[in-house]
Amino acid sequence: MKKLNLLALVLVCFAASLSAQTCTIDTTHLASVYVYPPADSLQHITPAVYYDQTVQGKIKSSFDTTIVAFTFVVTVDSVNMDSIQGLPTGISWSRNPVVLKGGGFGCVEFYGTTTAPAGQYPLTAYGTAWGHASNSTLGIDTPVTYKGNLNNFSPFGGYYLVVDSAAPGVHVVVTGTSPLCSTGTGSASATATGGTIYTYSWSNGATTDTITDLTANTYTVTVTSGNLTATGSATITIPAAIVANLTQQHTNCDTAYITATVTGGTQPYTYFWSNRGALDDANTDYVLQDSTVYVTITDANSCQLVDTSTFICTGIANDGQMIGLQLYPDPASTVLHINVPQISSATVQIKIYDLTGQVVFSKTQNTTGALTTDIDVHSYAPGAYFVEVTNGTLTGRQKFVIER
């Protein structure tokens, strides 16, 4: 009994296969057929030779089927081929589009290099088909969903690929490996078949099957066995070097900071600032005093650059130690604790500045002996801030960070 009359296995083009290659839909030959070319006309695969063939397909928009002596019209809404099994080793496939609508067109591309034995390789597609079955006499119009092997539900099922016997002569497959970092080098290896004793002649003068310490270039090898030869090539690419530009912003110690502008390598980057002593993803460092700053920049491939900058600022620096100013936790998220173990007068003024110099918090507190107070910072945006505590003639300033 005919069920959903789906397109041939070649409509695996609607599977969820991820591939960098995408075939181009061409409906030229699909006016009166549902698959082109048919399996028995598709070009065969030659072992160790790159294969790339596209198959076009069309699905019916509707068809009749008989269920318990009643004729139903099945309308095909869409078909999604999730996977395909039976491909020769080394042969991949891609599709366009992902989901085929009823009456629509699609294509599948078979590509790759195989060393599989000669023979016919039947293909089996799996997926889901959606449609509606209706009979106006019975007043029935019901959704139909099928999941599983889709080959049995199309007269064009049973698609296959053919691998021929290895072609006479020598064949070579060249594999190149590029470095992850700009300071690295690449390598290339040639794997030869079809001969007995092989000699190798590379474009850089090497005579071994594997070459190393390669810079960015395309390397071609000629393999010889007796009077038979084959050529192949591989391209080596070198990533751009990590480059950092360290720039000081502002000159006042209370607001100055260093920014690292990074190019090259592979994003994202992480930063280890020498005066901070912690690894994070912040490309800005708040120094608050004259010093030489070192930063280690690491990219996604663990490639590193160490850069340095001399930081010079003017004005009052991080002088919280003048009155024993202590801030914790740092970084803070909801509450900042301020402690001054000894004060000289009863009145203490507390201010918090952001990096633009704007006062975001201010209060005056009367206390004796020592200052201990908590400030609610949960509503402040993440970033760097400065606390200024004034007690008589003494002023302490200290940076802290809000993180969430």
Question: Keyphrases for this structure?
Answer:
single chain, 404 residues, Immunoglobulin-like, 5-stranded antiparallel β-sheet, 31 strands, flat
Helix and strand topology:
Layout: E1 35-36, E2 51-58, E3 62-67, E4 70-85, E5 91-96, E6 100-101, E7 105-112, E8 119-122, E9 124-135, E10 140-149, E11 160-163, E12 171-177, E13 186-193, E14 199-202, E15 210-214, E16 217-225, E17 228-236, E18 243-249, E19 257-263, E20 270-273, E21 279-280, E22 284-285, E23 291-298, E24 304-311, E25 326-328, E26 335-340, E27 347-353, E28 359-366, E29 371-376, E30 383-391, E31 394-402
Antiparallel strand pairs: 1-2, 2-7, 3-4, 4-6, 4-9, 5-7, 8-11, 9-10, 12-13, 13-15, 14-16, 16-17, 18-19, 19-22, 20-21, 20-23, 23-24, 25-26, 26-29, 27-28, 27-30, 30-31
Give your account of this protein's structure:
- The protein has 404 residues and is mainly beta.
- It folds into four domains: 9-163, no CATH class; 171-236, Sandwich (Immunoglobulin-like), CATH 2.60.40; 243-311, Immunoglobulin-like, CATH 2.60.40.1080; 320-402, Immunoglobulin-like.
- 0% of the residues lie in helices and 51% in strands.
- The protein has strands at 35-36, 51-58, 62-67, 70-85, 91-96, 100-101, 105-112, 119-122, 124-135, 140-149, 160-163, 171-177, 186-193, 199-202, 210-214, 217-225, 228-236, 243-249, 257-263, 270-273, 279-280, 284-285, 291-298, 304-311, 326-328, 335-340, 347-353, 359-366, 371-376, 383-391, 394-402.
- The strands form nine sheets. Strands 3, 4, 6, 9 and 10 form a five-stranded antiparallel β-sheet that branches.
- The chain starts with 34 loop residues before the first strand and ends with a strand.
- Mean pLDDT is 82; it is low at 1-19 and 316-322.
